[in-house]
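ARCHIVE CARD
Drawer: 12
Card no.: 0347
Subject: one protein chain, sequence and derived structure
Cross-reference: see card 0346
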Amino acid sequence: MRVYYFALALCAALAGVTITASEPAESAIPLGSVHDAAKHQDGVHFERSLMAAEATNHEARSPVGEDLMLVVEPMAPKVKSWAERFAQLVTNLRLRWEVKALAKQIRRQAVTKEDPNYSADFLIRLMTAEQADGLATLYMKEGKGDTPEVALANVLAGTYGDEAMVRALITHSFARESVEGMGVGRVQSAMIARWEAGDCTLETMIKWILGVDSHFPDHQFFNPVVFKLLSAAGSASSPDVVYKALFKHFGNDVRRFADVLEAAESRDFHDHKAVRECARWLESWQKVNLNGAAMI
């Protein structure tokens, strides 16, 4: 904007100089007065220097600059608005294309029956929250569920299987990353809602969890994601039911269960609140003293 003003102002200055230099002969200096001619020439140079300095002054001092600002300034908000709308349009089109590509990939994997564990894990690691939301909305429109969340869970479970989804969610949890605002977070919420509303038992969920690794560490049952999955099982009506199922899994062995709780308490990325509540439950239910003051 300043460049345009400068060019216009400079043209105006040059025009003024041209007019001054081409005045009628009557205003010229008498030929006989060399001294007066020199003084006049100095005056012209001085006048030109003043005009040049004035041309580089702030645009508010020039009527040309003022006129230009009157034209340009009202356009700025509109140009900004157009740019923002265009950027949003491009983003929406790109997201729509990405969602369609993901849906196509999932349909292909449902037909080819590729390794469901690998495919499910690969999918949720790469998918963004926006893509997951787009898939959920697309599947709901296709009649895969009454809500976007249910539709997404139904398609993923139908394509890869519930056990593969459990494995993928737990495997991702080992990275100790927050899932908030990520595609895996959307998938986790959808799958947990599915298992809460379904007939998945705690015994079945424990079996799926143990299938993640043949040497699955006992303390990982108190990994926040794993404990959420346990609590999501349809038969898990309360935390006490989860604690009782775990106690049964550990052979109703108080000492072994206490060791698991102690190991879980010593890990940073574990649900310490659940560990302490479970320790209190075990002491109350079995009428024992675990001597675990740190846990309680």
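Annotation on reverse: The radius of gyration is 38 Å. The longest helix spans residues 75-112.
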